[in-house]
Design brief:
single chain; Cytochrome Bc1 Complex, Chain D, domain 2; two-stranded antiparallel sheet; elongated; binds heme C
């Protein structure tokens, strides 16, 4: 019986560790959109700058892959782009931004 208890406890510890780990690593697209300055140029759902395209409906027109590429290297989609590259962001952060644009 003791062995069962030990196994159960170990399972609980692992579950807790995994939960805390994924919580700590989760990235929030909405705050990245502000922190990285997207909002200074782009309007999204009524808030933000208006010097660049409004992104409210962009996820309906573009694929996830296209959006990820646009954030990483805008020059590939728009050769004379004035949008900065955000290649310093991790894949996870870029995906969080794309998910935010789809929200
Ligand atoms: C300095 C201003 C500026 C900043 C900051 C900026 N962008 Fe842009 N973005 C632009 C401009 C200008 C365009 C229009 C196409 C071009 O010239 O690159 C654009 C285009 C886009 C498009 C494509 C819109 C379409 O026509 O389909 C997406 C998506 C986008 N930006 C997302 C972002 C995200 C996400 C961020 C933040 C990580 C960001 N942008 C930061 C200026 C900016």
């Amino acid at each position: 019986m003791n062995i069962l208890k030990t196994v159960f406890r170990a399972g609980m510890v692992i579950t807790l560790a995994v939960t805390l780990f994924s919580f700590g690593c989760s990235v929030d697209g909405a705050s990245l959109f502000q922190k990285e300055g997207c909002i200074n140029c782009h309007r999204f759902k009524g808030a933000g700058g208006s010097i660049c395209p409004d992104l409210t409906d962009v996820a309906g027109k573009r694929s996830d892959a296209w959006l990820r590429q646009q954030i990483k290297d805008p020059g590939l989609n728009f050769p004379d782009s004035t949008m900065p590259e955000f290649g310093h962001l991790s894949e996870k952060e870029i995906q969080a931004l794309v998910d935010y644009l789809k929200s």
